[in-house]
Structures are given as C-alpha cells and as structure tokens.
Design brief:
This protein is α/β, with parallel strands linked by helices and 279 residues long. It contains ten helices and 15 strands. Bound molecules: prephenic acid. It comes from Kaistella montana.
Length: 279
C-alpha cells in the first residue's frame, strides 16, 4: 500500500508516517496539496499530513484542503513531540540566512530573534527540504531548522539544540483517505472523536448559538472549534468542529439532519481515534 507524506526523507511528517505505517511504501510529496492530490487521484491509498501544532496552532493549508476536497476522510490522528535544531553545513562556521518550514520558523521565533536577531529567515516547503538544500549548497552559507534525523541524513552540524520557544511542543498529524474507515493503531489511545465542517445559515443574530445548541441539548462534548475563512469575502467562515466520543449514538448522528434543517451545512469528515507517538 502506498502512503503519501510531506517529504523529503526525515521531515517530521515522515517520522510520524513511518511509525504509523512501518511496513508500507512511503511516497514523499513536495507539498501538503500534493499529498491531498495523491489520495484524490488514487496515486496513494492514504496520506499523512500535519494538522495542528501546540505552539503555532493550525496548519491552515491542511484545514483548507479538508474543506475544499470532497470525499476525503480522516482515519486517524497521532500526536508527536517536536524538537527543532539549528544546523549548518560542516564546512561552514557561520551563516547569513535561516531557512525552514513556516511552522518551524514560527515555533522558534523568539529563539531566533534573541540569538540571531539580524539574520533573515526564509520559508521552505519542509524542514527536511531545508536541511537537504543546506547540505547541497555549502557555498551559500545558510542554516536550516530541522530534526536530528535530518541533520544525520544530510550530514549537517547541529549548532543549537532544542530551540523551540516552549519546552512542550507537539504536532498533530492526520491520516487521510478516500475511505471512511477508522484505523486501529497499536499506540496509546488518548481519545475518540468525529470531525465536522460546518457553514452557518445566512448571517443573523444567534446563528452560531443555534448551531451549537444542536450539540448542546444532545450533550455532545466539543473538544475543538476553529473558524477559517471561506475565501468568498471578509466575514465568511467555515467551522472545523471535533465531537468527543462514540459516533454510533443515534442522537449524535441525527444532529447532522437537525443542522441541515436550520440551514447550516454540515460535512462529516471522519470518526477516528487519537494516539500518542514517540519522538
Ligand atoms: O516540515 C516538516 O518537517 C513537516 O513535517 C511539517 C511540519 C508542520 O507543518 O507542522 C510538521 C511538524 C512541525 O510542526 C513542523 C513542520
């Protein structure tokens, strides 16, 4: 079975992916969009993509594509600790620019400002892609922020270790697929949830309250609610909502009917377990 992930080798997503699917063929992609397209076009059966980080928050591209792609379901969610290191080519002593994935740059913002305030940074497609670029271009005097597997794989020298701004740093990764199935994994299960994407009825006072009351009287416990722009104009949002617990409850299932009857659109995108992974 082919599993797409945000590559190249030694990205954080690959570390998560290889723990979830140790025996499958892992196929690196150069963007999160390519991961979604690989699943959509059946080039891969599943993909692993980042969804949320405890310091920097939601990976907005992933949330957008969950909304924009039809018939893509979440089969599982895993949480992994994240440690960032600053690394340079071993032939270099110093550097003039720091490159990495925007999430990694954001998670290390204060460290970089405090220690290397005047050195510019540049977004890159992934932490491991930035490490690879540094290894291939010693003449360019650039540093990458990536994990220690990337430092090893691409032969780089770590000059600052554990540079994330908060000691507790975790990222959630999701397994997506065209099949609406719950993946059972052999890790510590930390919760069971259902994800819904909701757009409100036309703009009126109490619209969100009306939607939330559909969950409230059923005693459905919401563990996350996040709004994201619909890109159709300022003030237009969709909501990503997680409901805790077993979705088989008939009251839970018919909440979707009630949402429809009040003019909200509700898209079910998966019932799945959340697990904890190791670094
Ligand atoms: O760049 C990588 O290595 C990734 O796997 C992406 C990603 C992310 O988008 O959140 C994954 C985990 C870390 O939070 C930093 C970057």
């Amino acid at each position: 079975m082919k599993i797409a992930f945000l590559g190249p080798q030694a990205s954080f997503t690959q570390l998560a992916c290889s723990q979830i699917f140790p025996a499958e063929e892992l196929v690196p992609q150069s963007s999160i969009l390519d991961c979604f397209n690989a699943v959509k076009n059946s080039d891969a059966e599943k993909a692993v993509v980042p969804l949320e980080n405890s310091i920097e928050g939601t990976v907005s591209m992933t949330l957008d594509y969950l909304y924009q792609f039809d018939e893509i379901f979440i089969q599982s969610e895993v949480i992994m600790p994240i440690s960032h290191h600053l690394m340079i080519h071993p032939e270099n002593e110093n550097f003039e620019k720091i490159i990495s994935h925007p999430q990694a740059l954001a998670q290390t913002f204060h460290f970089r400002i405090n220690k290397y305030g005047n050195i510019p940074s540049q977004d890159f497609s992934s932490t491991s892609a930035s490490a690879k670029l540094v290894s291939e271009n010693p003449q360019d005097k650039i540093a990458a922020i990536a994990n220690h597997y990337a430092a090893k794989l691409y032969g780089l020298k770590i000059i600052d270790e554990n540079i994330q701004d908060f000691e507790q740093n975790h990222t959630r990764f999701i397994v997506i697929s065209k099949k609406d199935e719950t993946l059972q994994l052999n890790f510590k299960k930390t919760s069971e949830k259902t994800s819904l994407l909701i757009t409100l009825p036309e703009d009126h006072a109490g619209g969100l309250h009306q939607v939330l009351s559909v969950f409230a009287w059923r005693k459905m416990n919401l563990s996350k609610i996040e709004s994201r722009t619909l890109k159709t104009g300022l003030g237009n949002y969709f909501f990503y909502i997680n409901v805790e617990g077993n979705w088989e409850n008939i009251l839970y299932k018919n909440s979707l009917e009630e949402l429809k009857s009040i003019g909200a659109e509700a898209k079910f995108i998966g019932h799945y377990n959340e697990y904890e992974l190791e670094d």
